[in-house]
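name: query_chain
kind: protein
chains: 1
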Amino acid sequence: MIAAGVAVAAYGTFFAMPWRMLPIPAAIGMLAHASRWAMISLAGASVETGALAACLVVGIIITPITDRLRLPFAALCFASVVSLIPGVYLFRMAGGFVDLITLGERASIDVLLNTISDGTTATLIILAMAFGLILPKMCIEHFYPPSPAIKTHGKTGVFHE
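structure:
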């Protein structure tokens, strides 16, 4: 959990997030990591389901906070779940592609299957993260619209009246 909090703070710092905002995504990111770990280790869920559950927790917590404090939803949400990005699966998939190209026709079917498996797992995790973050926001804002003071942002408007 602590490593997830450090990753969130590092990500926020790298992308010039104000220091006063860092504790919010760091705390929520640690909670997200703990909920993912609990789903996988204690409930026996897959990594994809664990990422979905963690992102649902983040979306449910972040939506009212960003509305109330008038903070950017996307920045805080993504910073909170940056440690859930499936980097290991993406790197293994890329390595599998290199092996397939290097070995050519001599590549075994296992290399192909492992590459496809890693790519599919990474894709499913990313989709689970996207749905897990946006679904709570859409549901909460449907039943409890944002405060009028932040409802629109110019002509394009992030929020709709």
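note: Residues 70 and 119 are 37 Å apart (CA to CA).
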